[in-house]
Design brief:
15 strands, 5 helices, about 260 residues, two-stranded antiparallel sheet, Glucose Oxidase, domain 1, 2 domains
Amino acid sequence: MRLVDLSVSIEHEASFELFPVKIDFRAHDGEGLDFFKEKFGVSESDLVYSGGRAAGDEMLTLLSHSGTHVDAPFHYGPESEGAPAATIDELPLEWFFADGVLLDLRHKQPGEFIEIADLEAALAAADYALKPLDIVLLHTGTDRKLGTPEYFDQPGMGRESTLWLVEQGIKVIGIDAFGFDRSFAAMKADFERTGDGSYIWPAHFAGITRSYCQIEKLAKLEQIGRPHGFRVAAFPVKIKRASAGFARVVAFIED
């Protein structure tokens, strides 16, 4: 079995985050050593197994949507399908370990909508029919721009295309881009041009009508090497009452 890591790292002050992450690295011979001295009442000479050093650790200040992460229905609004929207800790594990489907959408340009017709064409090219609880991965190629200003220029899903997938029993949809909708700049430009609020976050807000989850900031989808016939694990970290959870997303491929 071949494993493919589809995740990006959580990095200190990464340029690909809207709200940069802060990581305080606490050294084995610095803050970590001070902690051991306080808790155990020891000196360096007492730490006989470690050569006078202690634990290394990190203090993180970050958004729950940093790095590769799963958005819960609560992210889109306080209610979904007429009931309280589920937070990330409330979602069933079965949603996050399932057969994967890779849809090639690399022809879509930044600012364009991924339409139902695009999804249908990608499924036809893959010779695959969706089934409930498949994890759908949208391959746009945007991850190749990670770390550059152009990373935030991407195609994205619309309301109709999102609901089309969800209404077929899909609960988890991932994308190898910063966000699930088009870029903030593209949405803003269309709103300013038309005054039409339906351009603002239509794919996310579709989750108010029908509950589903997104995986954002995926990477290296091309390494899967096939459109289906693989499994995906995307278990989000269990943060109580949160709108998202960090995830180490992995494809399991039988060669």
